[in-house]
Amino acid sequence: MTDVGVLKSCPNCGSTNVTVTVERQDVPMPEGDLSLCVFAPVLTCAHCGEAFTDDSSESIRDKAAQKFMTIIRERNDAKLRAANAEAMVDKRLPELERKFADVYRMHSILLANYDKAINDLTRIRAAIRELVSVTSDVDATGRLH
Ligand SMILES: [Zn+2]
Question: 7 alpha carbon to ligand 1 midpoint, in Å?
Answer without folding.
Answer: 13
